[in-house]
Amino acid sequence: MKTRRHFLQSSTSLVALPFLESLGFSRFASAAADAAAAPPKRMIFLGFGWGVTEESWYPDRKTPGPDYELPEGLAPLERHKKDISVVQGLWNKYSVEGHAGSTWWLTGANRYAQPGQSMHNSISVDQVAAAQFGKHTRFSSIELNDAKGRSNSGHGEGLSLAWDVNGKPVAGLDGPLAAYHRLFSKDTTPLEEQRARLAERRSVLDTVLENARSLKRGLGRDDSEKLDEYFQGIRDIETRLAKDEQWMGVPRPKTDVPEPPSEVSGKKEIELMYDLMVAALQTDSTRVLTYRQPVETLLPSVGIDVNPHDMSHYITTKGEKLAASRKRDQVQSELLAGLIDRLKDTKESDGSRLFDHVSLAYGSNIRTGHELDNCPTILTGGGAGVRLGENIVVPEHTPLCNAWLALLHGVGVPAERHGDSTGPLTTILA
Hints:
Structural class: alpha/beta
Number of domains: 2
Largest sheet: 8 strands, mixed
CATH architecture of the largest domain: 3-Layer(aba) Sandwich
Radius of gyration: 22 Å
Strand content: 5-15%
Distance between the termini: 43 Å
């Protein structure tokens, strides 16, 4: 096993950390350090529930390309128009539930694919990327939720936007304070005590694994498959333990972002989360982020006194529900514009912008109400080589997973397929 000193000298995973700039990159003359100087690719997925205001969020489909006008709902993004693309015509064909806004957004799975099961999912695109990118960072991926955890924000089942290789929900960090402590708080536990705790967890895991293997003998096919799933879960725990061991004693990076308050919600919460996401990428703590954004708390924080679910059904009654939906769109676009500002203002070690190395997807599995086609989708960032500054109109009912597959290829993840994909959507790539 490598010692920590050997690990720090031989691996490229730590050389890229921005806080090492204070040491001077000239001290690292090895080829590995030279290779690490090139900023890595990152992926961000931002999902919101309850869709958008159909009439004022989507650009005119009749004006594809760069010469389109941003509609009212996207107007706050005007200063970034050349650096974003709206993609129209995408959907997840197996999505059939209007109240499951994020459950299958990043997976494209068919919930009824397994006979006898009423709830089936598959791996989400972020976790496909994390399997490759996570080898180089303390956290393979970071999953973020609103401060209330599973609030009434139209997201449906799941513990975050992420689903693991078995289609099981990946737990997220609830709110800015939890995210801050996970990413940047110093662990004051003595190193020997950390090692002892890790050894104890390994011992318990070994015992469980031995008992499970003994139990498997004589089981029927269905039970055997369930136990295989259980074994995969154990392997996942083993992977996490190995990563904990790898990073034991390596201090968490410092950040200029102050510790968030314990009580924060709505618009301010999203702003803080965006700050922490940029800081997480800047310090190379992770290269894959998802954020299941709040809507329920966003509305009152910007003066909207309408039930969020009722707002999503503005088509039937319009009036204040329609006005609330339009304002919600504008506020969300304003927040996204602020995040893009931060990504552009943050410099990499080579002087380039963080924005140039990030692939960011922003959207929802719901168009509006219970309508699930033409999923609202905005792509930005230079990380995946996406065509930016365009209204990209693809044939109706193009698999959303084709876009996810194209993004994976764009950042260098050689996936053959994803969800219900039929091939990478090369239309979105430059």
